[in-house]
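HUMAN: I'm a chemist; might I ask for a sequence paired with its structure tokens?

ASSISTANT:
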Amino acid sequence: MERTGAAAVIIGNEVLTAKVVDANGPLLIRRLRERGIPLRSVEIVTDDVDAIVDAVTRARSKAAYVFTSGGIGPTHDDVTVRAVALAMGRQVVRLPEMVELIRKRSDHLTEEAMRLADAPEGAVLLPQEGTWFPVLTVDNVFLLPGVPQLFRIQLETVLKRLRGTPVHLRSLYLRLGESTIAAVLDRVALDMPHVAIGSYPVFDPALDYRVKVTIEAAELAPVEDALARIRGGLPADAVVRQE
């Protein structure tokens, strides 16, 4: 199977125990979407080496790019580097460039601080504008920090280096329920398999619509064609608005 798009592994007991609300996953989803890079999966795992190895292995089997979030600091539960190395069949090594950066930051070096220089063999550092801490990457696996502020700026550095194909999207807001519009959507989806059509009902009486329908594809023409077909198959007053 060809590996395409991206996959993410969010790492941290604090996320799975609700001590921290994950902000990195939603941000990554949105930014990949904006860059036109399809996201294949997002998996949340504990600070456990075996769990991270399994998740990274699954991610690499399906995606060209893998993002990890969390577990790259100097404390006992920061095991992402070791886990990624195991998943890739590599040793953990200490990067001289990172050692030098750490030495420039502190006059009182500890072994714990020097753990920040550990990386899977073959890893490289991408300079990070605005901070001394570079992005750690190895063979299109990007090991990003779990702290949302740091994750955000490092993610932008990575995304500048990746190429995507932004999709064209149109949305219809309908006052009809899904059971009423299903036949029309089924027919258009069957005729146009290269266009992604989504149907999302809402149950909030304060809203002025009952279903949001999305139509998307890499090319604009088929999106407009599918949109016209759907509108043509619905009653004239079914559409509340179009975006």
